[in-house]
Design brief:
It is a single chain. This protein has two domains: 99 residues, Peroxidase, domain 1 (Orthogonal Bundle); 73 residues. Helix content is 59%, strand content 15%. The protein is elongated and about 75 Å long.
């Protein structure tokens, strides 16, 4: 496993990753899981039924088997979803899928960088930022930029990747200045 993930969702994502790699089906499984997460957002009523713990596990398993058959999912994905249904963990599929994508990205040498700005970055600026980040991360890593728009930062950028956050927003600078101005001034003795 290229990353150590913790917690229940991390354990399930790691198990799915190992099974997918062993069967040489990593991309297919990733695609199927992401497709199912998208479908669950569109057919919320049906998927709520599969996630309801008051529904017997056998009924949830039957529903998942039917979904997998209709969608022509691989055996790895089908068996994984059945385990989630049996253990009452289908309600955590979205979180597990996100953690699984972290693993597949690490496997491919990709690093997700989230860039928050007041307006969408023009293509030329995004390209320059991507090149700078590529240099920072070094060879062997591929930068995938996800843009977020948040007018509340007032200007500048917030760049997040891994456990690092570079907050160069005007909002952050204004807060720092405000704290500085509120601190009492101490004059040393002459």
């Amino acid at each position: 496993v290229p990353l150590a993930l913790f917690g229940g969702s991390g354990n399930y994502a790691s198990a799915l990753y190992i099974a997918a790699v062993k069967t040489n089906a990593l991309e297919k499984v990733e695609s199927e899981i992401l497709d199912l997460v998208e479908a669950s957002k569109k057919a919320d009523t049906y998927f709520q039924f599969t996630k309801d713990l008051s529904v017997p596990a056998e009924t949830r398993v039957n529903a998942i088997n039917e979904i997998c058959t209709q969608a022509k999912f691989s055996d790895v994905t089908k068996h994984f979803l059945v385990v989630l249904a049996e253990n009452g963990r289908l309600r955590n599929l979205d979180t597990i899928a996100k953690r699984f994508v972290e693993l597949t990205m690490a496997h491919k040498g990709e690093v997700k960088v989230t860039v928050t700005s007041v307006i969408p970055l023009p293509p030329e600026e995004e390209k320059e930022l991507k090149e700078t980040l590529q240099e920072t991360l070094g060879q062997g890593k591929k930068v995938k930029v996800e843009q977020k728009v948040d007018p509340s930062i007032l200007g500048g950028l917030v760049v997040e990747f891994g456990q690092k956050v570079f907050d160069m927003s005007i909002k952050s600078r204004a807060r720092q200045m405000e704290r500085f101005l509120r601190e009492p001034i101490h004059f040393g003795t002459l």
